[in-house]
Amino acid sequence: MNIRQITAKDWPAIMAIQQNCYHDIAPESLASMQSKWLVSPDSCMVYEHQGQIMAYVLTHPWQKGDAPKLNSVFTSIENSCSLYIHDMAVSPCAQGLGVAKKLVNHVVQISTTLGFSGIGLIAIQGASEFWQRFGFQPVNNMSKQLSTSLASYSDDACYMYLPADKAV
């Protein structure tokens, strides 16, 4: 079992996992997904076991208290003080094996190593409880820009944040 940076050959497996995991939103385009990787390749990972991609996580710098709209395509990202988990998905065949926990812990380590002040994300499909187990807390005081971004996700979309000093 191995967590490693994404390579170009991983995208068919990543897109298949995305297709299998999301039912409340339309899957994002390959261009959108790859743009996160291209602007922050050091923080985008796959979980591989016996040569098979079992999960992925796409993260990139972003501002605390904000999130990009779903299906956004980036060409660059301005200086940002926080890391943002854009997407994390575990193949149905690997769920329940602790893969998600390993990926989250890896992202927290990356965030700390790179000196970010915390990590933001948008939880969907009832995942808020999962993220709270790692110390992420819902943020209720939202800007108009964040509210607009949330509207591009599912009805249960919730912005959450984990300050670096609270990371477990």
TrEMBL record:
Pfam families: Acetyltransf_1. Residues 1-165 form the N-acetyltransferase domain. InterPro entries: Acyl_CoA_acyltransferase, Bact_Acetyltransf, GNAT_dom. Keywords: Acyltransferase, Transferase. It comes from the Bacteria. PANTHER family: AMINOALKYLPHOSPHONATE N-ACETYLTRANSFERASE-RELATED (PTHR43877:SF2), AMINOALKYLPHOSPHONATE N-ACETYLTRANSFERASE-RELATED-RELATED (PTHR43877). This is GNAT family N-acetyltransferase. It comes from Shewanella subflava.
